[in-house]
Write a structure and sequence with these properties.
Blueprint (H helix, E strand, L loop, with lengths): L18 E5 L2 E6 L8 E4 L10 H10 L5 E4 L15 H14 L6 E5 L1 H12 L4 E5 L5 H10 L1 H5 L3 H10 L8 H10 L4 H7 L1 H5 L2 H18 L3 E5 L5 H10 L3 E5 L7 H4 L1 H10 L18
Parallel strand pairs: 3-4, 3-5, 5-6, 6-7, 7-8
Antiparallel strand pairs: 1-2, 2-4
Helix pairs in contact: 1-13, 2-3, 3-10, 4-10
């Protein structure tokens, strides 16, 4: 069993040999042993916490035992304190500091929702064995335009009403009852946190956001790392074509009827997807310097 940096309490026994610790200031559950298998770094979605990974990790411990995994709480979520700034590139840099402190080599980074964007930024800048994107579109313009349209309400007293709209689009009601309970128990929508993570969408021109995203995708495309997208609803053919053009190495797997939480709706199937990454091919990395936001 590993000794945690700040705390060493055990994660539930049904989760294998994990312990709770702090890595680079972020709360983490740390499982398994480093070996030839690619380590996994799991990043939850906005307003949630790392507990959403536990059903899949319980299955993973059965089919791919003692796989090295760290599940992190993002800044301002779960057991992690908030940061002065939560721009996504800065969060990706913080994740990398946690990866270095955990002594992981070229992890597979798994991100749900906004964290799939963070994972993609990570892969554009740091040695990475691959990415699993859980139900997050990489076409940024439509969402950026929606957030800008709702800016005053997101920053004002109408935030709870607006957030209910976003929550309704997640379709939690499609999940099995136990999964619904888990998702709701892990959801803590704080206005300050949401606005902090969406600051760039709120404040930067859409053209700049599109250019930044395109540059990141170009870097991931050039790196050639495997990229799996797991979607909970059918994707438009136009989007699938666009994604293949932007990331020819990408694979799309659609699990209909699981809404925004396919990893929670089907933890056994998701664990199989995690296990399949154990020996994803990876050539000797060339370290890339992080790009700085302008």
């Amino acid at each position: 069993m590993k000794i945690g940096t700040a705390s060493t309490s055990k994660v539930g026994s049904d989760q294998g040999t994990g312990v709770t610790k702090t890595l680079a200031g972020l709360a983490a559950d740390d499982y398994g042993d480093s070996d030839a298998r690619a380590p996994l770094v799991l990043l939850h979605g906005l307003t949630f916490d790392r507990s959403l990974w536990r059903p899949a990790l319980a299955e993973l411990s059965r089919i791919d035992p003692r796989r090295r995994v760290i599940a992190l709480d993002l800044p301002g979520h779960g057991g992690s304190p908030g940061w002065a700034s939560s721009d996504l590139e800065g969060v990706a840099q913080g994740v990398h500091r946690a990866v270095e402190e955990a002594q992981l080599q070229s992890p597979v980074v798994v991100g749900h929702s906004i964290s799939a964007v963070i994972a993609t930024i990570y892969a554009a800048q740091y040695p990475t064995r691959g990415i699993i994107n859980v139900d997050q579109s990489l076409q940024v313009a439509p969402f950026a335009e929606l957030v800008k349209l709702l800016a005053d309400k997101l920053r004002g007293p109408a935030f709870p009403i607006v957030w209910e709209m976003f929550t309704a689009n997640m379709h939690i009601e499609l999940l099995p009852e136990a999964a619904q309970e888990l998702v709701r128990s892990a959801s803590h929508p704080r206005q300050d946190v949401v606005v902090a993570y969406w600051r760039e969408l709120l404040d930067r021109p859409v053209d700049e956001i599109i250019d930044f995203a395109a540059a990141g995708l170009a870097a991931v495309r050039a790196a050639g790392v495997p990229y799996l997208m797991v979607a909970g609803t059918d994707l438009e053919p136009a989007y699938q074509k666009w994604l293949k053009e932007m990331l020819p190495q990408s694979t799309i797997s659609v699990w209909p009827g699981s809404g925004h939480f396919p990893h929670v709706a089907h933890p056994d199937r998701f664990a199989e997807s995690l296990a399949d990454t154990a020996h994803w091919p990876y050539e000797s990395p060339t370290r890339r310097e992080p790009r700085r936001s302008t």
